Structures are given as structure tokens and as C-alpha cells.
User: Fold this.
Amino acid sequence: MSEGIDGEGATQGPPRETGQGAGWYDADDERRFLADYDPNAFAPAAVTVDVVALTIRAGLPRVLLGRRARQPQRGRWALPGGFVRARAGSSGPADPDLPDAALRVLTEKTPLPAEIHLEQLGTYGAIDRDPRMRVISVAYMVLAPDLPDPHSGRDTAEAAWVPWTALGHGEGAGTEHELAFDHARILGDAVERARSKLEYTALATAFLPPAFTITALRGVYEAVWGHTLHAANFHRKILATPGFVEDTGELAERGGAGGGRRARLYRAGGAALLHPPLLRGSP
Assistant:
């Protein structure tokens, strides 16, 4: 438990004199304190991780969901998640850190490539978000190219890559997948995070293989933003943005659908931020 100065559970009053002078760190004093410390003096709370895994399949942006096979919320769809393992046990070793827990619960549902984008999305701790107890969830967002079909696990009856439009996000959206807990809010935050970061970062390349065409990159923007972009304008802006992409010197294996010439292949150029940014409202 982390406590600030005079925080809950902190020892009040002036520091006791030690061999190093008043107020200085004393290892023996800390050991005595921890030996008498009672964690049951505080209301218990559990920590979980939830993962919003986003990919693009068949031209559609999709999120990984599993239908819960157990109570609570049995039968509803949910993001991959689970309790953080505080110590080793029958379920496996302890999670060294929260990102490790996020990757663990995600790999239980789908194999992951060597390179993925993982970032912390936010922390969710409303008192009524889980009917079992006070549960605080640290949510992560994962972006990766065309991830394989998922598989169900011990807590999920089935798993699927579900289009955002089936979850209330995007034009023509529906709601045939009712989400458990507050996962609709978490997903909405992730979708907006992805859409906005495509404007000012090179994050779109995380949805693509190491070598890609400008057309494929435009397809990422169109899928995530949910509207069509002008091909020539997009091509010009991408090549005019320093560090966004770089030419591999190679060509695609096949030409376009009409049998045209083969397109150039590009790779991520290493830029973290785009200047100027690509704005959603631009053609």
C-alpha cells in the first residue's frame, strides 16, 4: 500500500530518534512497523486488468470480445481481463507488473505477434462497477495487425473479433452485443483514443505488417475514422509528413485489382509525432 505524507495508515507525530538522526530512513524500524502492520484494518479491494485489443480484419476495425460463461454477467460479452495475480498459486505464477498481467490475459485468448503496441488506457474504479466487491481495473489498449481467430477459455463460452459498428461505435452502429460491467465505457474510451492518436502520431502503422502500401495505410485511417478519404490527397500528405513512412525500395507482389502496376512498399519511418497532423475532418 502506498501512502503519502500523513496519509491513511501513516504514523502520526514527530519521527522517533534513530542512529541516523531524526526522520532518516531506518531499516530496522521499518521491519518492526511491517511486523505489526495489519492489512485487514482497511476495506479490501481487488485489482484487475482489462484489455481492449484492436485490429483490422477484412477492412473492418474489430475488438476482441468473449462471452462470459460464469456469473456475474454470464452470457454477456466482455473484454479480455482478469484479476492481477498477487502471488503464485494453482492458477500460475504471480504477475510481475500490470502490463505483464494484461499480456497474460490477452494471450489466453489469441496468439500475439512479436511486435504489438501496448499502452495503458486508464483506471476505472467506480464503487458499483462489479457486483462482487470493490474492483479497480487498469485498462490497456493493444493494437496489432490482423490477429488470428481467438479461442474460448475456461471463463468464456466463445470469443470473436467483433466490429465496432456492432457495439455502438461508428456510422450505422448497432448494439447486438451487450457488454458486461462498464466495458462499454472502456471500449468507447479506447476507440476515441485510437481515433485521436491517428491524427497526431504514427500509430496507424501498428495495424499493418512491417512492409505496406500507402493504399493499405489509407485503409487503416478509413476503417478507424469511419469515412472515406481522397486517395490522391492522402498519398500526398503521407509522403510530405517527415518521418512518417520510408520507401523500402521494393514493390508489392501483385498489381492493383484492375491489373495495374505494382505499388511501392513502405515501412514505418520512426517518427513519434506527425507534423503537420492528419485531421479527421480533412478529405
Remarks:
- The beta strands are 46-57, 60-68, 77-78, 81-83, 117-124, 135-143, 156-163, 245-255, 262-268.
- Residues 251 and 264 are 4 Å apart (CA to CA).
